[in-house]
Amino acid sequence: MIKTFKIVAVLEGFSYLFLFANMFITKNINLELYKSILYPLGMVHGLLFIGYIALAILLKFKLNWSFSTFLIICIASLIPFGTFYIEKKYLRHENI
User: Which domain holds residue 17?
Assistant: First the structure.
């Protein structure tokens, strides 16, 4: 399950960055292009975000994370590059 969480963390981080990049790039372009790119990307990011939080909750109990560690891991999903930091700092030492 930790391997799945690592993969979801990295994918969620990339989807967050792609969402922001596309939002700024397509903001001044045709509205139809804006909708056709951002809606699917937003849906994918939303699903990855929900998966990240759900897996974090499951791993909190499985790995006996403290509440502060769990809170940091959850808050990192709201910050750009946050999930990459979590994967490097908190998940590298976990067994795959």
Answer: 2-89
